[in-house]
Amino acid sequence: MDVLRQQLFNIIAFVFLGLFVAVWGSVLLRVGFWVPDGRTVAPPLNGALVTAAGVLATSLSSLTASALGFTIAEVRRDESEQDARRTSGPGAPGSSTAVNPSDVTARLSGRIVAAIIVYLAVGLAVLLLWLAKGTASTDLIGAFALSLLGWLIGAAGVVFQTEKRNT
């Protein structure tokens, strides 16, 4: 029982990520292997599958983005505190520099790193399918593909961010 207690968070993360991959894998397979039949514009998807896929994609996107944001804020706060201790006197200039990516990734748990990798891998597969199938894909595919692009733009903004030094 102690092993379960120690690994409870990892089990929850594994189940959540596994469910995400299974649901979106099902969507990808149904849309990917669907051949237009002249009667319908896109493959029909069960309402429960659409709802589950949407909730899982939105949840994982939010969880990973917030984890990254909070971790970056923690690193900045700690660097500011260190800078404040190094400066002497109340009027001494401080410096605000861009966050070192290795400091951020060192603080991310393995679960968060796994969630980001799973989200990106599935999201990129969805994006490629959406681009390949075009109008023969579903609105769900298009919505997730656009959501992934928004997430990537936000992440790229952090990755390529530069801050001016305060003087």
Automatic annotation (TrEMBL):
Entry keyword Transmembrane: yes
Spans traversing the lipid bilayer: 12-35, 47-70, 112-132, 138-160
Region (Disordered): 78-100
Keyword vocabulary terms for this entry: Membrane, Transmembrane, Transmembrane helix
Protein name as catalogued: Uncharacterized protein
Organism name: Pseudarthrobacter polychromogenes
